[in-house]
């Protein structure tokens, strides 16, 4: 994000004295300047001014981050995951938070995709491995960060840079708990480069622009949230370590600070969290079917994020609005069906809340009869979030637990043979 922002109290010149207010004739104590920057001082950064020394900790303990093991998708199959089934119990949801309650669906060495349904506040947390892009499927929350706060709700993407200390506070609702789809990169996550000028401004052909992005509301201090500035606080950190190979070497630590993490009196720069709502995405359409890159919203290292929004569809007189069959030679495709009726998947069992995985090496496309049925359609009322990866995805424990076991047979009318996963709801291990 190369869009400069400045909030709160900062000195006129960077790396110079910035002091606390003091009485007449007195000199206040220095604030502590922290550079939060990417790519070793060679890319975007921000300067934050703290009341406390940001390196200070008084304790460090192991955080058991949960089951991050993965199982190969072997034998190779398209899959239908049903993540809503992972959180069926209201009492469990009441005690679950968006950080520690995530269930890993799919992952590889570049990205992990998790799902959580939560009603409890999360601990303070930062991801020391890569940026996070969290999509709010339903519900609402307040997200408090050292840069400021956000009010997030249905349809919001929140992009949180690596090492940003933050917490999630769901808004109480019996009708709709917070449902979050978390995309954790091992890299930075940003708008596609082709949308940006060489100086970082969104270009005219981009489907969204700076006006659509919501920066944090800040600065935000401990007393602003009704908490004590000197309150001892735990911060959960996800980072690389000597964890088991099955977890990708991901481990966790809990640092105890002798003060509240909301101690930033001001900051400026081009690196900060922001929110983008999917309804502000202007779809790119054409006379014939547009390929997935036309729907891209973000990119990371070896993966992209796209969204398919309600839109006018192909208007050539002989067009077939649903996608053609395609073989993902170089990528795995993950589609999260959020709202509406996804025309190409009718008859497959997929509905709102479903996730499909179409792996590289397998040709996929519309269900039988969907192409013919789509002819003459002028508008698709659908909303989906897609992640394409350029390395194969394995199944996490959450993905194994909510695989319907039958989706790979949906193009053949349910006619199946031997091995692999069994009937819907029945999951077998794959060796």
From TrEMBL:
Residue ranges occupied by any Homogentisate 1,2-dioxygenase C-terminal domain in the UniProt entry:
320-394
Name a Pfam family for this protein: HgmA_C
Give GO terms: molecular function aspect only: homogentisate 1,2-dioxygenase activity; metal ion binding
Q: Which residues form the active site?
A: 289
State the Gene3D superfamilies in the record: Jelly Rolls (2.60.120.10)
Q: Where does Fe cation bind?
A: 326, 333, 364
Q: Where is the composition biased (Basic residues)?
A: 12-23
Where does this protein hold homogentisate? Answer: 342, 364
Q: Which CDD domains does the record cross-reference, listed alphabetically?
A: cupin_RmlC-like
List the keywords (alphabetical): Dioxygenase, Iron, Metal-binding, Oxidoreductase
Q: Which domain of life is it from?
A: Bacteria
Q: Name one GO cellular component term.
A: cytoplasm
GO biological process entries:
L-phenylalanine catabolic process; tyrosine metabolic process
The cofactor required is:
Fe cation
Q: Where is this region: Disordered?
A: 1-25
State the InterPro entries in the record.
Answer: HgmA_C, Homogentis_dOase, RmlC-like_jellyroll, RmlC_Cupin_sf
* Listed PANTHER family: HOMOGENTISATE 1,2-DIOXYGENASE
Stated family: Belongs to the homogentisate dioxygenase family.
Q: What is this protein called?
A: Putative homogentisate 1,2-dioxygenase
Question: What are the top taxonomic ranks of the organism?
Answer: Bacteria, Bacillati, Actinomycetota, Actinomycetes, Micrococcales
